[in-house]
Structure formats: C-alpha cells, structure tokens
Amino acid sequence: MSFQRILQHPKLQQLLQFLPNLQSGPLIGLDIGSSNVKLVHLAEKDGEFTLEHYALAELDPDAIVDGAVMDASQVADTIRSLFTETKVPTKKVAISVAGNSVIVKKINLPIMDEDELGAAIAVEAEQYIPFEISDVHLDFHIMDNDSRPAPEGQMPVLLVAAKKDRVSEMIAMVEEAGASVVVVDVDAFGLENIFCANYGAGDPIVGLVNIGATVININVLVDGVSAFTRDISMGGSRYTEEIQKSLNISFMEAERAKCGEAIEGIDEDRVLAIVQDTNGEVAAEIGRTFDYFRSTVQSQQVSRVYLSGGGAKASGLVEQVADRLGIPVELFNPFANLHIAKGIDPEVLKQDAPFLGVAAGLATRRLAD
Ligand SMILES: Nc1ncnc2c1ncn2[C@@H]1O[C@H](COP(=O)(O)OP(=O)(O)OP(=O)(O)O)[C@@H](O)[C@H]1O
Ligand SMILES: [Mg+2]
After folding, report:
1. Where do the structural domains in the chain lie, given as residue ranges?
2. 38 closest CA partner among 162, 197, 158, 212
3. pLDDT tens column, 53-99
4. Which pLDDT tens digit goes with each residue over 143-169?
5. Quick one: which atom of ligand 1 is closest to the CA of 31?
6. In the CATH scheme, what is the homologous superfamily, with its name and number, of domain 236-329?
7. What angle do CA 306, 36, 161 make, to 5 degrees?
8. Whose CA is nearest to atom 9 of ligand 1?
9. Residue 334: CB within 6 Å of ligand 1?
10. Alpha-carbon gap, residue 236 to 239, rounded angstroms
C-alpha cells in the first residue's frame, strides 16, 4: 500500500481521545452505510491478508436518511449484532466518513515539515473549506510521491476536513454498541487501500467507483496513488425511488423488485426498464466525473474501472458504464488476491463481496499505522 492516512494526526488523536497504547494489532473495519452496516476482520501475516470474518446487516430505510442518522439506537444494535455474529477478537474499529460530511482536496503549500504544517494547517485550510474551521476535524498528508509535482518551492498536500458532529455521532453509535473507534478514514481511501492490497498499483490509471445507496465514491489512482476523489450524491436508492413512484408500491417492495425478486402484481419488464434507465443516469454521472478528471487533472485516460458497492449489482450496470466510458469495467472483488479463512463459504462470499470493499479497506488499517 502506497499511502496511509487519514484523520490520524496526533492532534486529532487527542481530540478523539484515541487509545494511548498504540501497539500494532488488527482493527475491525466497520462501514456504516445508509443501507447496510458491514464488518470485516483481516488477519495479516508477512504482509499478506486473510479474510477471517465478515458480516453485513441491512438497516431499516428510516434509520439513516440522506446520510443523517435518524435512529442511532437501531444502528448501534445492528453494529452490536455484527460483533455477536462474527465473534471477532477485538472491538477496536476503523470507521469512515463520506459524502457531504467530508471534504478531500489536494492543495499546494509552501514547503515545510509535518510539525510546521500541523501548526499552520487550520489557517492554510480556511480558504479551501466551505465550513467553519472550528466545526471540522482537519487532517493532511504530504504527498511525496504525487503524480503531479507542485510548482517550485511548494509541495502537494492532501487536505481532509470531516465534520465534527458527524464523526462524533458515528463514534457514539459504535460506543453504544460496546466497541471503540481508533481510526476515522474516508470511504474513498478505504477502497484504495483494499485495491492496492489486491493489485499493488494496478494499471497506470484506474478508477475505483463505490456505489452505495445514496453516495457514489470515486477515487482515481495514478500509479497506485490517489490523484482525484469525488463523492456524488446518488446511488442505489435512486432506482428504488423510481420503481416505487412508477409502480406505486412501497419502498421495501420496490427494493425487492429491483434486486430481481418476483412480486405479485408487478411487471418485471417494467422494473427492468426502470433499472436500465437509471443505469443510464448513473453511468452518465460517472462518465462526467471521469471526463472532468481527464480535462482538468490528468490528460491521460483512465484505463480500467472497478465498480463496487451494493449499487454496482444493479442488473446491466457494469455493461452500461463500460459503454459510456469506452474502457474495460468490472465488478471489484475486494478479496480477489487475499487468503480466505476456511469457515467462509466462497459462494456466499461472492454474493456479498461487492458490498465489502470499504469495510475491507478499513480492516487493512493497523493500530500503529
Ligand atoms: N442485487 C441488487 N441489485 C441492485 N441493487 C442492489 C442489489 N443488492 C443491493 N443493492 C443496492 O445496494 C445499495 C446498498 O449498497 P451498500 O451497502 O454498498 O450501500 P451503503 O454503504 O449502505 O450506502 P451509502 O454508502 O450510500 O450510505 C442499496 O441501494 C441496495 O438497494
Ligand atoms: Mg457505503
């Protein structure tokens, strides 16, 4: 893995009352999405990972609405049930933030060392962050190996600002479930870490796209290093809402119909047509992001795209994104080159794997990172 971060700046660790004993050891990856909570435990030996445990559980649609937690107790209960189900050896977790609660920006700053930047970051960040600086946790990473070097006398810095209220809310839910948060990462970086754990740098320019229920995380890697990230407010719920509206059925029925279940009185061809239309919208949105990347960030084209997230399972989406982008697109398997513990059924894992990219990436983090 090329590049470890985020929200782990010593100051932030104090702020979050991080554990004082930073010995190395596994962390449990916990991806709290608006539709599903995912838990992954990876063991590491000689630099190789083994998937030891995983579990996922659906949340009621009213538990987290548009990224806002409406029923924290339900989320905490769900987290607790995942720990009970998997019996993982630790309750220290890495979580992540995404969407409009986090801003990731690459900026150029005068050359200085980590400590100097630590002292200056709040002032430097002010002009780049559309929130009150006192309302966000700030973190940064000096990008030594960036694909686009900074102008003379400057250095490229990855700046991350996560809304404090959002982070606190997530930590509180994890604590209510009897676990403790040690690392707060960003969805897009979790995805990057698990991609690199599988493929190293991969192709020269790869696009990682995670399609959740309400957010699409995009991370473009150049030689294995993030060159561009963007979160789009769109996802699997768009399909469900369209089906619900058009066929005048409940959200849950629409959800089941979308996933290919036969429902009495519902014309499957109409469902499929809505799925295809929505695939077109999602593909167009992803396409626009890659067009933007090519025109403003890097003149070269992304050569391969990996889709993950539950939303990537929408019938025909992989093909429609490939059509729109004109490059190879495949479903990402976050465990393609990892060892798998004996107790895990490969057939069930195959179905679940698209959901688990972010949680698996979070599970690559170690206490001492
Ligand atoms: N077989 C399927 N076909 C189409 N969509 C599916 C399928 N299975 C799950 N989904 C959709 O995947 C989405 C959930 O995926 P995921 O668990 O990755 O999202 P999330 O992390 O909870 O959401 P977010 O990150 O946006 O808050 C839901 O919209 C769900 O309807
Ligand atoms: Mg998600």
Report:
1. 236-329
2. 212
3. 999 999 999 999 878 899 999 999 999 999 999 999 999 999 999 98
4. 876 767 788 999 999 999 999 999 999
5. 21
6. ATPase, nucleotide binding domain (3.30.420.40)
7. 70
8. 310
9. no
10. 6
